[in-house]
Write a structure and sequence with these properties.
- The protein contains 9 helices and 19 strands.
- The protein has helices spanning 8-15, 27-37, 103-118, 142-151, 204-217, 265-279, 300-313, 328-331, 356-378, and strands spanning 41-47, 50-57, 63-69, 89-90, 93-95, 125-131, 158-161, 173-175, 177-178, 180-189, 193-194, 231-238, 246-247, 250-259, 284-291, 294-295, 318-320, 337-339, 353-355.
- By secondary structure, the protein is α+β, with helices and mostly antiparallel strands.
- The protein has a 6-stranded mixed beta sheet with strand order 1-2-6-3-7-18, with helices on both faces. Strands 12-14-10-15 form a 4-stranded antiparallel beta sheet, covered by helices on one side. The chain has a 3-stranded antiparallel beta sheet with strand order 4-5-19.
- The two termini are 27 Å apart.
- The protein binds zinc ion.
Length: 380
Amino acid sequence: MAHSPDPLPLAQALIRCPSVTPADGGAQDVLADVLARLGFTVTRLRFGAVENLYARIGTGGPHLCFAGHTDVVPPGDGAWRFDPFAATVQDGVLYGRGACDMKGAIAAFVAAAEAHLADGAAAGSLSLLITGDEEGEAVDGTARVLEWMRAAGEVPDFCLVGEPTNPARLGEVVKIGRRGSLNARIRIEGTQGHTAYPQRADNPVHRLVAALAALTALPLDAGSAWFEPSTLQITSVDVGNPASNVIPAAAGARLNIRFNDRHSGESLTEWLRAALARFAPRAELAVSVSGESFLTSPGAAVARLCAAIEAETGIAPRLDTGGGTSDARFITRLCPVAEFGLVGSSMHQVDERVPVAELRALARIYRGVIGAFLAAEAGR
Ligand SMILES: [Zn+2]
């Protein structure tokens, strides 16, 4: 008879810690205590103001890692039905900030690990990489923990990230990659002058408009095997000129590109530079790449993950690479990574919530993933 611990109490305990990035609110203490009691060796990793944690049980391979974050976004200005940090259960639904993104998934994985350990299965290792800085800058979070893991020789065979990947129903979507994201700031200097004497001026707004038109005229690509087409969105055009008879001295704009595996931050920066040079040789371009695109080729490990999901939900999940960035963009540099968690329809919203039955179903899925992964890798 399989032992099945309930993820609900830990999910509630975590939600009751007000861990709005970068605050920890005691969340990592709660988690560390539970993991230590289960026999995990817990290493607390504080970088800057951010609490992170790495916990492992077992010494040999195969090694399956679960990654997630205990920080949450603020409750926001809207009126909540219940206190966002009270973890109220009403009619079988757990309400609270972090319920689906992603304290619920952490609790589900811990319950799954507990069930696995109670079964006496000895092979392999399980670990958790938990950061307190995913929703913020993500500078002192997962990226730093991964540096530490690499230096310590902690390299998992596979990592499962518990982000809420499902749009509406548990089991719909596994993410095997993510698009990259690039922000650019453009500034074009011209020569200020009177609108009645444009021949004595050099209008930077005209140059900017022409450059932006060129950047948006054609699609960046038509997509690739696992990715949708890349997109470019102009997010701001800034001139701030209060006068109607003055050609301004400078004009600026900002844009964001979500890109697939046909581009890199570097290739897009070159493309932007070349396009700007055609219309404004004096343009300044400042680029920041918040994440490169990546893809985990769907192989045996992803197939096992999908099989465990289908066994519980009856749904064969779709492999997807859409949405925003996540910490998987860092983890992919250390080991293969895929993402599967709860239904994300209420994430970052007022009344964030998860049905308790769904939380328990996710724990059973994770239990299946652990069993399948450790058994399959051990027997290869
Ligand atoms: Zn999240």
